[in-house]
Amino acid sequence: MADGEDRSHDGRPINPRVSRQGPERVPAPPSKRARHPIVIVGNAIFTILLLLAVAAGGGILYGSQKFSETGPLDRERAVNIPPRTGIRDMAELLRREGVIENPTLFLVGATILGATDKMKAGEYVFQKGASMESVLETIIEGKSIQHSVTIAEGLTTQQIIQRLNEADVLSGPIQKIPPEGSLLPETYRVTRGTTREQLIQRMSAAHKRLVDEIWARRSQDLPVKDINEFITLASIVEKETAIASERTRVAGVFVNRLNKRMRLQSDPTIIYGIVGGRGTLGRGITRADIDQPTPYNTYTIAGLPPGPIANPGRASLEAVANPSRTNDLYFVADGTGGHVFAETYEQHLKNVARWRDIEKQRGPQPQSQPIAAPQTQTPASPQQKQKQDFPTFAGEKRKEEPKKEEPKKKATEKKKNEKKKAEKSGEPKQGEQKQ
User: Fold this and answer.
1) Cα–Cα distance measured from residue 271 to residue 6, given in angstroms and rounded to the nearest whole number
2) C or N terminus of the chain, fewer CB within 10 Å?
3) C-beta separation of 310 from 423 below 8 A
4) pLDDT in tens, 330-367
5) Class of domain 77-141
6) What SS3 state is found at 124?
7) pLDDT of 201-252, one tens digit each?
8) Would you say the C-alpha torsion 166, 170, 172, 178 has a positive or negative sign?
9) How many angstroms from the chain centroid is the CA of residue 136?
10) Domain residue limits, the chain
11) What does 355-412 look like in DSSP terms, one character per residue?
12) Rounded to whole angstroms, what are the CA distances from 255 to 206, 239, 258, 322, 391?
């Protein structure tokens, strides 16, 4: 044992390092500040907020997964969301239609994404198993189902209005019936709920654009003085044939007759003069109809009627603007749905005779109901006094009323005089031309 080394009372040396450390420290009692009620409440609030944040994060994660997962639709479905439908009603409608299961989650998702002001009414197609996210995108994009409303060429304005009123995809009344010949026949794509007045305005604007375009590049020697006469002649051509390849030639016949100051003698003008916008007689044309003077009957008036007799399509407008350059003055049905044309009255009579042979081979034909699009039209034969039936425009039948028998000598002289007169003027009697 070295000298000077400290020892305990029992003789064991004392470690000077240990002795210098002193006694162990006792933890300090909590401060009065930590025990303050405000601190305790603050800690509780913080803890609650933390828990809420965790819960919210978990909820957002869960909601996000539900929002993008496969939906309940077991097949493709179309749903119409009416205009001015609120977003809550919209979500409920989607639930009733089986598109979504949770309208509340759908609304929350739309709100978080800032889409509530972008959701549009309309008719939409939702795919099988569409997620809420996909459903919301479809409604935001506004890609509504497009429906076709087809208006056939050659309908009168009154007939067009009737078809628009029958179209259940359209809504609302038509405030004012447009003028005859001012609507463009076409297939229009519309969404459900489009108003009839809106479609009428579209048809009118489309007609004006097209007519102005075609009128600007018309032949400069046409025997029409303004756009109204141009449309009027196109409407007659439209009613005379449904064969696209014939329209320019039919237009050429009428242009030639106008230039020669010959009457047009078109059956559709007879019908329009009698029934106006209704468009069809519902029966055959008779001799009395042919002889009945009206402002539209081109058997009794010279030149063009005062206005269109239907709404012509693009092809007929184009045909009148640039008709075929021929010497044709007549045309008659050829038995195939088309027509055969002639430059002279004699050739025309031969064509009529061939048509009569075709009629005889076919035998009696039942009278068909008027249809929307024109088909064929044929003239009456001046030699036949007995009652005759033959097809005219729109598949109708025209009935020639029998005339009283004349003495043989008087009838022969009358026939010779009529033939001489026709040869001199180059124009057939009423009923001999393809009207």
Assistant:
1) 143
2) N
3) no
4) 998 888 888 999 999 999 999 999 988 887 887 665 44
5) alpha beta
6) strand
7) 999 999 999 999 999 999 999 999 999 999 999 999 999 998 989 999 999 9
8) negative
9) 27
10) 77-141, 215-425
11) HHHHHHHH---PPPPP-SS-----PPPTT--S-EEEE-GGG-EEEEPP-----HHHHH
12) 26, 16, 5, 10, 24
Query: In angstroms, what is the C-alpha Rg of the chain?
Result: 44
* Burial 247-259, CB ≥16 within 10 A → b, else e: bbbbbbbbbbbbe
Measured distance CA(264)–CA(255) in Å, rounded: 9
Torsion of CA 220, 221, 224, 226, to 10 degrees: 20
Give me the residue label for tokens 């022969």: 412
Q: Is the dihedral of CA 308, 312, 314, 317 positive or negative?
A: negative
User: Of 368, 372, 364, which Cα lies nearest the Cα of 395?
Assistant: 368
Q: What is the pTM of this model?
A: 0.69
In angstroms, rounded to a whole number, what is the distance separating the alpha carbons of residues 271 and 281? 6
- C-alpha 137/C-alpha 71 separation (Å) is 14
DSSP 30: P
Determine the pLDDT at residue 425: 42
Name the token pair of 107. Answer: 């609304």
For residues 58 and 65, give the distance between their C-alpha atoms in angstroms, rounded to a whole number.
11
**Whole-angstrom distance, CA of residue 107 vs CA of residue 92:** 10
Phi, psi angles (nearest 5°) of residue 49? -60, -40
Provide the strand spans (E) within 67-106: 77-81
Amino acid at 15: N
